[in-house]
Design brief:
single chain, binds pyridoxal-5'-phosphate, alpha/beta, seven-stranded mixed sheet
């Protein structure tokens, strides 16, 4: 079908929850994608931090093919071999003892919030139900996760939201201390706030949060939906801060592109979920778990990709810092951790996204004025050089 007609039908048949670019992507390999009209793009969006191994990694493709021939879906009424294997891998590589699988980041956070309330109310018989989240956070679009999200613009028209959730400034331990009450059951935070513009906390912030939780019998939930699975150069972002949470959520990079989410917890906390207390029809089905196992295996093989992510992250940031020196009137700040990098502008960044797209590079603009780069973790210096050249051309045109 010709592109114009496809786009017309897209507008006609799909709900308008996205302002889509007039681009139909048809094929991807590694960091490259191609549109229906055959144009090639370097993809620095990576499905919004999801395609950690790039597009259509051959090992992931084969594992999906093999699993599809064997068994695609069965109910969680039965034990599912790929699900067990994936849970074992996650537990062996994290603080956690138990895993619950679902289908998205929002669902993983929803599960985490439910678990933290149930842990105190039902399991320990304590009246603790309040959850403290951060201003400018993003946790998803379901009612509970939308309530937890600390940005009013996403909440318009959805009142009344869930009771028992409050917000405090991110990276401010005093604000958290002041918000704690006898009823607080959990503090829910992103290690790095991604959606609101790649906001990185001070190095000691999470140590202080951990201590605050321990001292006050409060659970720490880390939303690693965006930062987990290698994105920040460590398997999980909290490793950069030298702490562990009680509950952690994952999605995005976990399946390397297939829809899967996970909520991980210590045995102590996980014990609050009993048969019938939570569930998901598709959660952890054989097909997505097979894809996630292979993605995980490739990610941690020899530590090569994580190492590459750290090196490329540094290289990338340096390139952007150079651009900041060249265009100080346009770029206000460069910040990042691993390959989650933000470049804040003094102006709206949408025109830059469009100009880069016209030149064959896909980038993302978030929070209005922050260019957010989340390429596959296999990105090379050559790819970054190419992007930097294009950014320079575009910035030149703006100055
Ligand atoms: C930190 C964080 N949490 C949760 C979500 C929601 O994930 P999903 O869109 O898979 O529901 C996102 C999505 O961008 C995210 O970045």
């Amino acid at each position: 079908m010709e592109i114009k007609k496809l786009i017309e039908e897209s507008e006609h048949y799909l709900m308008h929850t996205y302002n889509r670019f007039p681009l139909v992507l048809k094929k991807g390999r590694g960091i490259k994608v191609w549109s229906s009209d055959g144009k090639e793009y370097l993809d620095f969006v990576g499905g919004v931090a999801t395609n950690i191994l790039g597009h259509c990694h051959p090992k992931v493709v084969v594992s999906i093919q093999k699993q599809a021939q064997r068994l695609i879906h069965v109910s969680n009424y039965y034990h599912i071999e790929p699900q067990i294997r994936l849970a074992k891998m996650l537990v062996e590589h994290s603080f956690a003892d138990k895993v619950f699988f679902c289908n998205s980041g929002a669902e993983a956070n929803e599960a985490a919030m439910k678990l933290s309330r149930r842990y105190f109310k039902e399991h320990l018989g304590q009246n603790k139900f309040e959850i403290i989240a951060a201003v400018n956070s993003f946790h998803g679009r379901t009612f509970a996760t939308l309530t937890a999200t600390g940005q009013d613009k996403f909440k318009i028209g959805f009142d009344p939201l869930l009771p028992g959730i409050t917000h405090v400034a991110f990276n401010n331990i005093e604000a958290l201390k002041n918000a704690l009450t006898q009823e607080t059951c959990a503090i829910l935070l992103e290690p790095v706030q991604g959606e609101s513009g790649v906001r990185i906390p001070d190095t000691d912030y999470f140590k202080q949060v951990r201590k605050l939780c321990d001292d006050n019998n409060v659970l720490l939930i880390l939303d690693e939906v965006q930062t987990g699975m290698g994105r920040t150069g460590r398997l999980f972002a909290h490793e950069n801060f030298g702490i562990t949470p009680d509950i952690m959520t994952l999605a995005k990079g976990l399946g390397g592109g297939v829809p899967i989410g996970a909520m991980l917890a210590t045995d102590k906390v996980a014990a609050a979920f009993q048969p019938g207390t939570h569930g998901s029809t598709f959660g952890g089905n054989p097909l997505v778990c097979a894809a996630a196992i292979t993605t995980f295996e490739v990610l941690i093989e020899d530590g090569f990709i994580l190492d590459q992510c750290r090196r490329m992250g540094k290289y990338f940031k340096k390139k952007l810092e150079d651009l900041k020196k060249e265009f100080p009137e346009i770029i206000s700040e460069v910040r990042g951790m691993g390959l989650l990098i933000g470049m804040e502008l003094f102006r709206d960044c949408a025109p830059m996204v469009k100009a880069c797209m016209d030149r064959g590079v896909l980038i993302n603009c978030t929070a209005g004025n922050v260019l957010r780069f989340m390429p596959p973790l296999i990105v090379t210096e050559k790819d970054i050089d190419h992007l930097a050249d294009i950014l320079e051309q575009v910035l030149d045109g703006l100055s």
